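Table S7 (text form). Paired inputs.
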Amino acid sequence: MPVHQLADLTWNDASTLSADAVCLLPIGALEAHGPHLPLQTDVIIAEAMARNAAGRIAGGGRTVLILPTLAYTPAPFAESFAGTLSIHPDHVVGQIVDIARALTAVGCSRLMLINAHFDPTHLSALSEAEDICRQEGLLQVIFPNVTRKPWASRLGAEFASGACHAGRYEGSIVLAARPDLVHEETMRSLEPNHLSLSDAVREGKQTFMEVGGTQAYFGFPAEATAAEGEMLIATLGRIVEESLDMARPSP
């Protein structure tokens, strides 16, 4: 099989993988996602994104290694809500750099950060880790930041507007990937929250409460559907595949 879950392998199995394997690191968070979605929403999205991307990349004849998900990350915007576990950004930077060092030491050449958590403190930590890996001359680290061009416009109007947290975009993906964890009756009853987190960050706001997300959601959760979620997962998978091709070193 060209797609492998690292944690499921023995060390003997791992030793036979080619140095050209593409390593995927799903990255999420444990944070409040409204009264209708689980704390692990970002983890679910990152893992669905990684699985879809892995199939696409492997379909091109490349071996793919999916690493265990990094689920503890900075989430200061949601810190005031029960269940949110936010850690210092330096710990995330350190973990990613150390993972990159370890993969480099065993001969791997590419690590992709499959991220579904968009707290600005967290995104800065990922970019810092990517920079450190480049400065140290480690394996190639590829971070397709879907909040930026050219990717964001492909994920729907809600996503592009910035009014997107536990709304239509995330709710649709969780409905597709883990419908058993969605409180659907509650979700269908929620009023839209048009406030843009992107605009709020530019204005210097630092928490969901400051922005006006008193229930820890933004966007249009009642409009979420599993069918749209399947399409979004496929789009995310294509984005990962395309970013890998764009970042491929010249021969």
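Next pair, protein 2 of 2.
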Amino acid sequence: MADIVTNLGGFSAGLTGDSQLRWLGPDKGVMHMAIGAVVNAAWDLAAKLAGQPLWRLLADMTPEELVALVDFRYIDDALTPAEALNILRAAQPGRAERIAALLADGYPAYATTPGWIGYSDDKLSRLSRQAVSDGFTQIKLKVGGDADVRRLALARAAVGPDVRIAVDANQRWTMAEAIPAIQALAPYDPYWVEEPTSPDEILGLAEIRQAVSPVKIATGEHVANRVIFKQLLQAGALDFLQIDASRVAGVNENLAILLLAAKFGIPVCPHAGGVGLCEMVQHLAMFDFIAVSGTVTGRVLEYVDHLHGHFTDPVRVAGGRYHAPSAPGFSATLRPESLRDYQFPGGPVWQRIGTTVRSD
């Protein structure tokens, strides 16, 4: 364990740079995501051994220690180690004050819960109003169906003109479809349009962004690696960059992406829609506030209110803000009973599903 947690930069680079793994990539696909799971587990271990939540473990590192964690291969044309060091050193003043502010006030969140496609008009309106009542100043709707304009109009009527409404197309549109679809939504003031087309469509996203301005473009949850993020930033293809705790190769690569975003002056608004993603990515957003960007201006962290009870250290969101986790680790530990119940194929949940299917 000591060999791993005292050299997490080398541990990560050894996995992503292994010659027997790189023929599958490099830095792509299920192998890259699997490496991310192992790297994230190593960081969870390191934080538990240090007796700190991950965000605090990272925030207490020196700029030199943080830069040593980053693999600059393929991105040093956009961000050099010296530039990364300058970014981190510039954020050192005020770290203690930002930690105190985080502990006192939390980190701003937005609610995705109101806007799933398939909700009735009444449910969409009711959940939108409830989110505002709960303290959220931003909500998000799914779009890409036949009723996008009507649904956005309903949500805007429910929350009023001062609440931000982001929309998420989940890659549904082609280039030919995206621009007119977004322009049709523009009268209802969408705050951003997320994944209007394929996340690999770097030049297309730049074209869409230019065509629909001042509506903003957000993407990142399905971006495979730091190289594509670099190119999105170089091409001017996004207004908000959305990291994901589990899509790329773990904490180390996400640190590289946070530094790239800081270099280009683009706010990071992480994706957190899946099981455990809220628990994990909150640490990275809070670290960014304390040690990289030094601000929460223009930044907000996704929150989806489901399945948190399966974790031993679930997220705590109140008044539209994430409360900083205090338990050691990456907040990724599942409850023993959840692991037992959902073990495939013999767990009780799967047995019940099988019984139901057979009876049907």
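The chain has a mean pLDDT of 94.
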